[in-house]
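#help-structures
NK: newbie question, is this the right format to request a structure? protein is RRM domain-containing protein
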Amino acid sequence: MPRYEDRHGSTRLYVGHLSSRTRTRDVERLFSKYGRIRDVDMKRDFAFVDFSDPRDADDARYRLDGRDVDGSRIVVEFAKGARPPEPAARSRSPEPTVVNSPPLKDRNHSLSPNEKSPMPEKNGQSPKDQENGNGTNGQDHTPRDEPSP
C-alpha cells in the first residue's frame, strides 16, 4: 500500500519553509536523488517540484518532509489545487486584451479645445441636466454676488 493519501498519481510537491539562502539548484540537487524532475518552480520561501513519476514524488515527500535544509526545517507535501499552464501555453502578447474597450488610439486621445465631445449634448443640455430634467442648459442663473434665497 502506498504511503500517501494521493489517489490521483500526483507528481507535484509543495516545498515550504525554505531558507532565503536556498537556491533552485539546491532544491534540484536534493530532490533529484529520488527520481527524474520535470520542473522546479522556486518562489521566495517555497517551491514546487514536479517529478516524472508519482512514486518518486511520494518517496521524496516521505523522506524529505521535516528535514533541515540550509538551517530551516522544510515542509514537503503534495501540492493542492490545479497546476498553472505550461510555459509554452502562456500568451506572449505584448499587451493585455481588454474586452469591450476602444482601441488604444481612442483611449489615449484627448480632445483639443476645438474638438467636440464624442457624446453630443441634446438640446444644448449636459447629460446630467438631461437626467434631472433641468432645462437650464447647465448654467446657474443665481447672481454670484448675492446670497441665494
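mod (FA): yep, format's fine, and the C-alpha cells are attached above. The longest strand covers residues 37-42.
NK: thank you!
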